[in-house]
Amino acid sequence: MTAGVGSCHDARLVIPPSATPPAGDSERPPLGSWARTYALVCACAMLVIALLWWLSIAFEPGRTA
User: Fold this and answer.
1) Which residue range(s) make up the domain with 50?
2) Could you tell me the CA-to-CA distances from 53 to 38, 44, 45, 50, 59 in Å, in that order?
3) Pick the residue with more confidence: 20 or 60?
4) How many domains would you assign to the chain?
5) Is 5 within the bounds of a domain?
6) Average pLDDT value over all residues in the chain
7) How far apart are CA 54 and CA 44, in angstroms?
8) Does residue 16 lie within any of the structural domains?
9) Computed from CA positions of residues 18, 19, 23, 25, in that sequence, does the dihedral angle turn out positive or negative?
10) Sign of the C-alpha dihedral, residues 44, 50, 54, 57?
11) Cβ contacts of residue 3 below 8 Å, gap of 6+?
12) Tens digits of per-residue pLDDT, 41-58?
């Protein structure tokens, strides 16, 4: 048997041009660093959780104002 294209014996690695990322400013993480981005996402998540908690307390069924 001969090794054909796509077989496990084919040692060539072909990367299509569309798979390589473009060079330039697009490689920068959002907000300048991943740590800042992660912190902002966590802060927004905590804010949403606090807002949902407050709304569930404020509009509890059976509660009179």
Assistant:
1) 29-57
2) 23, 14, 12, 5, 10
3) 60
4) 1
5) no
6) 80
7) 15
8) no
9) positive
10) positive
11) 9, 10
12) 999 999 999 999 999 999
pTM of the model: 0.54
Q: Output DSSP code: residue 59.
A: T
Contact, 37 vs 31, CB < 8 A? yes
In a domain, 39, yes or no: yes
Alpha helices in the chain (DSSP H): 34-58
Distance CA 4, CA 63 (A): 74
Residue type, 48: V
Q: Is residue 65 one of the residues assigned to a domain?
A: no
Q: What is the mean pLDDT of residues 11-32?
A: 72
